[in-house]
Amino acid sequence: MLRLFLDNRVGVLLLLPVILALYPIGYFLGFSAPFGQATQFQQLIPYLAKVPTAHLLAHFFMLLLNAVALNWVFNSREFLEKNTFIVSLNYLIFASFFHLWGEPSWLFVAQFCCIIGFGLFFSIKPQQNAKKPAFNASFAFGLSVFFEPTFILLLPALMLMFIVLRGFYMRELLLLCIGFLLPQLGLVSYFELSGQFNQLNLFQKIPFYWPTWQDFTILGLLGLILIFSLLGLRARLLKASLKLKKQTQILTLFTFFILIIGTVLFLFTGQIGLLSLISLPFSFYFSYALLSSSLGISSHLFFYILFGFSLLKFLLFTI
């Protein structure tokens, strides 16, 4: 299976629904242990919190859509010399740590907005005017806040990533901030003009959360994935182009920003939204580990261990 996804065969994407179908089967046989808070954090638009769109089929569709979209970003932005489709499979495995089948959640819709934002962001060329792509990319990230309010914390990360990529250009940075905040400002203006501002829940009180042993198990696995990802990235950068080095530099900045802020937010509030974004860069970097000749069979063995755990965690966490 792994070899099929590592090759340049677009038809292998047809296997994704089959592989994804194994997860709800495991869910029905076992117990879906929550990662973080069991109750969902209310979305920025109150109406969205009342729509149970995250049922089984919605999860299935959004996970497939995100997996294919993320793989498109990886191939189209030339993170590798040849096309590969292992990114989509990596995403399904890593994303399985952050959701419950059938539970109301708009988390993966928010992630889709971020994936589109990454695709637009990586189209920015360091030597060319970036006003339009910077605005468009930040606007896509800004839309994600509608579905996961904790994503409002992404703005500083986007600004730092842009400065590393382009340098300090005040007008372009200003447009980036405007693009990110415009959806929120538009929503607040609508509720204010319609006299419904008191119905807009920008923030919600969240009780202190004490992590369980299941939570620490997932965090430990994420730490191991980070180690393998960095080893694979290091091997790839030894023969990488300047463009790839710049792309991985800003993606690494995003990775550590999410790891630090997302982990702190999770440990104190149990909210997994921001931390779940780590599945995007991990899907890229772990692909390098699987393709690395220096890591060899160790990365492949770790992949199958992760895949087996992600399928069996419904049963393992029941014990």
Commentary on this structure:
The longest helix has 28 residues, at 242-269. This protein is mostly helical and 319 residues long. The chain is globular, with a radius of gyration of 19 Å. It contains 14 helices and no strands. The protein starts with a helix and ends with a helix. It has helices spanning 2-6, 16-29, 46-49, 56-76, 86-95, 107-121, 131-144, 154-166, 170-193, 213-237, 242-269, 273-276, 279-291, 297-316.
The proportion of residues forming helix, as a percent range, comes to 55-70%
Oligomeric state: single chain
Estimated radius of gyration: 19 Å
| SSE ordering | HHHHHHHHHHHHHH
- What is the average per-residue confidence, as pLDDT, rounded to a whole number? 84
Number of strands: 0
* Global geometry: globular
Largest sheet: none
Structural class determined from secondary elements: mainly alpha
Number of helices: 14
> Which consecutive residue ranges, at least 5 long each, have pLDDT under 50?
none
Distance between the termini: 29 Å
Beta-strand content estimate: under 5%
Any descriptors?
0% strand; 319 residues; mainly alpha; 66% helix; globular
Give the topology.
Blueprint: H1 2-6, H2 16-29, H3 46-49, H4 56-76, H5 86-95, H6 107-121, H7 131-144, H8 154-166, H9 170-193, H10 213-237, H11 242-269, H12 273-276, H13 279-291, H14 297-316
Helix pairs in contact: 2-4, 2-14, 4-5, 4-6, 5-13, 6-7, 7-9, 8-9, 8-11, 10-13
Provide a compact summary of the structure.
With 319 residues, the chain is mainly α. It has helices at 2-6, 16-29, 46-49, 56-76, 86-95, 107-121, 131-144, 154-166, 170-193, 213-237, 242-269, 273-276, 279-291, 297-316.
